[in-house]
């Protein structure tokens, strides 16, 4: 059979009609492809960037304009480029995160040198630069910020805030600066404390709300419940690093909110979701600063105990998920075993 097919194919010669038909198909495909490229260029890349690409030049992320960077990260956030992007390695998983040194006032003892002063052969300079900086000015004592005793629920609020921070950085692949306002909106939507001004009383309540938000249709492309449970591990890792890393994380979050507030002031009101967005951002900034000062005054032992509570709650959530899965499977098996048509 194989020999017969090969002989038959060798005897077939394309006539002029077949050639013309194929050329028409190729021309039509080429024109449609050019139209798609033009529409893609209009919606994403500027003419200058497209000229560089067409001329064969290599384009890096730094070559993109601010608007192009925002569009690029929005595409990541919506899952359009997830398969093409290397997952971000969190700074709290780096060995340098365990060696953060802060003064008694909370300021960073080791300040980074300007880029021009860095040597090319410096070992670990890139890794050190990935860890966010601590406070630039000394943190005031809590007694100066408020005459009242701090709430015992601040440990629960810290878990809520850290979760929203870790999720936002995961969502933007570690670079919230590309879309500060969008990052703030994610923080406010995930955090029960910062977004709604609520005061969850247990770690379970705080984590349940965060998981519910990250499993909503807006963020479902990130991985749903499995991804949400993974972010809890990020919170546990941060708590395990102790006070210096927590202060640096909260300072990074404070800068995120400040930059988002600047962008919110420059945006037109119609682009903001609600009239109270700017006031919500301002209030979130104050709360972050207050809890940063509170974290700085807490003993190191508090974080290991809190990490153990968060780990236990995650285990309970996973066991509950597994029990639901097994129950659903049993229900499906029972339904499958029943007769769809019963004879009377």
Describe the protein in words.
- The chain has 344 residues and is an all-alpha fold.
- Among the domains are: 59-87, no CATH class; 89-105 and 133-322, no CATH class.
- 62% of the residues lie in helices and 0% in strands.
- The chain is built from 14 helices and no strands.
- It has helices at residues 2-11, 16-43, 47-54, 66-77, 125-130, 142-145, 154-171, 180-190, 192-196, 203-214, 224-241, 243-266, 277-297, 300-337.
- Residues 36-43 and 114-128 have low confidence and may be disordered.
- It comes from Glycine max.
**What Rg do the Cα atoms give?**
27 Å
Mean pLDDT: 77
- Proportion in helices: 55-70%
- Identify low-pLDDT runs: 36-43, 114-128
Structural class, from helix and strand content? Answer: mainly alpha
Distance between the termini: 56 Å
Biggest sheet overview: none
Quick one: overall form? globular
Tally of separate helices: 14
| Oligomeric description of these chains | single chain
Task: Tell me the number of strands.
Answer: 0
Order of helices and strands: HHHHHHHHHHHHHH
Strand content: under 5%
InterPro entries: Shq1_C, ZNHIT2
Protein name: Shq1 C-terminal domain-containing protein
Domain Shq1 C-terminal: 147-261
List its salient traits.
mainly alpha; Shq1 C-terminal domain-containing protein; Shq1_C; 344 residues; 14 helices; ZNHIT2
